Amino acid sequence: xxxxxxxxxxxxxQTISAFGSLIxxxxxxxxxxxxxxxxxxxxxxxxxxxxxxxxxxxxxxGAWVDRMRRRPILIVADLGRAVLLGTIPLAAVFGLxxxxxxxxxTLLVSILTIFFDVxxxxxxxxxxxxxxxxxxxxxLAASASVAEVSGxxxxxxxxxxxxxxxxxxxxxxxFVISAISIWLIRAPEPxxxxxxxxxxxxxxxxxxxxVTVRDTTLRALAACSLFRDFFIGMYGTLVVVFMVRDLxxxxxxxxxxxxxxxxxxxxxxxxxxxxxxxxxxxxVIVVGLIVFVVSLFFVPLARGATVAAAxxxxxxxxxxxxxxxxxxxxxxxxxxAIVPDRLLGRVNASAEFxxxxxxxxxxxxxxxxxxxxxxxxxLFTSAxxxxxxxxxxVLSPIRGLKVAPLCAE
Length: 409
Known about the structure:
16 helices; mainly alpha
């Protein structure tokens, strides 16, 4: 079923969008660091602007997604992101670009991304069916990995050639192409479940949170995410500035290093179904995440823009991205399989609310701690915290789960 024309349209649009988004994300960071000379604390605010919408509006997005057809939400979110990102190169041309604009654009783009991601995760079962979720998610992850190989490899050099703000324009164009691809999907989408004339959004949000908390599997995933993503938020805020300022790597070289992570992700996506069938969905989730968090220690061990440092950074990409991809595919497939369609938007939003909220506070903590204790020490501290958070999964029933139990609609 995942080979159908409509899935191919979704797949194509997402591949192109993923390519542009990777270029845009790298260019946004380089714009702050190289063009506007942002401090660690300002980078923390920028990370917070990216994460805050998921914490503040993610649950509302889930309720709205369950009330509406999902395809129109995807199209509007793509077009809105294209317009917002297009303002950055425009401001740069006229010499008006400031950190405040990066904050505002990042915040608004992130709001639309939350609506897109929740709708997208909830729309996929409509196209592929619940029995084909691992295959469908694996194909989408594989194409994202291919985009990562080329996107990161190209991003650094585009920044060096055209400047970081101009490179963000490529991301804007990719969202237009994604919107067109989704608009071309012709499969009928079931109408949402009929609700009362005056639905209570807070009651609907509460229902999604209650399902997440009461279900043993969802609760374990959420608890691990709460602690892990707090420390990942700390880490992610400072890792690029560490590579650029502390180690001294040029954007082009960093882009090539990050591209190796795409190769690892592609290999992980290709191997996910086979590994899951052999070892079970639970063990693959746990081991994949452990490999990812252990790899985080490699980066702060590096010193200077040397061959040895490059090897450490490449090793983190190779082990970390592959492990994370395998685990993420299975986590999403597990959630999509066990949650009824009428609740899927809200449960996906609850998972995003926990993940993004933790990363939001982590990014602020990382920016502050980076100013006080130094960037390298903060990276070590956050990697250790992420590793300890794995105990939530290691000690849960998920570690022995062989197959995802299908929900009864």
